[in-house]
Design goal:
Layout lengths: L2 E4 L4 H6 L4 E5 L10 E6 L7 E7 L2 E8 L2 E5 L5 E3 L6 H7 L5 H7 L10 E5 L1
Parallel strand pairs: 1-3
Antiparallel strand pairs: 2-8, 3-4, 5-6, 5-8, 6-7
């Protein structure tokens, strides 16, 4: 029963169904396809509320570099790269308005040199 916390800015996108994925640092007990995900905002605050419960459809390892995105399958093979997918479409699916906003967000030190997972529901 994984809990995932979201910033308030993403709540309307999750509620409307426009945001159906998230990128997270890989957990000690990683999320798996089939898990029921409990999507929250404001965890550990008085404003905590459940946004919705969803079933995880897929999980992939993802690498984000300097304006570069690579998605791997469970066998370590590359399944997508910027040459194959629309980066703007991918950024929007994750709740960002532009590629620049997406890459700026994931250039934060907390994401550097971490194993990331693309979680879809």
């Amino acid at each position: 029963m994984p809990l995932i916390n979201f910033k308030e800015r993403f709540v309307p996108l999750i509620e409307s169904g426009k945001k159906r994925q998230t990128i997270r640092i890989k957990r000690k007990n990683p999320i798996k396809a089939g898990d029921t995900l409990h999507l929250y905002t404001g965890l550990r605050t008085k404003k905590c509320r459940l946004i919705k419960k969803v079933v995880c459809k897929s999980v992939h390892t993802i690498s984000i570099g300097n304006r570069n995105l690579t998605i791997h399958n469970n066998f370590g093979d590359i399944i997508c790269s910027p040459n194959i997918i629309s980066m703007l479409g991918f950024a929007k699916a994750d709740g960002f308005n532009s590629e620049d906003e997406f890459f700026e967000f994931f250039s934060q030190p907390m994401y550097k040199n971490k194993q990331l997972q693309l979680i879809k529901w």
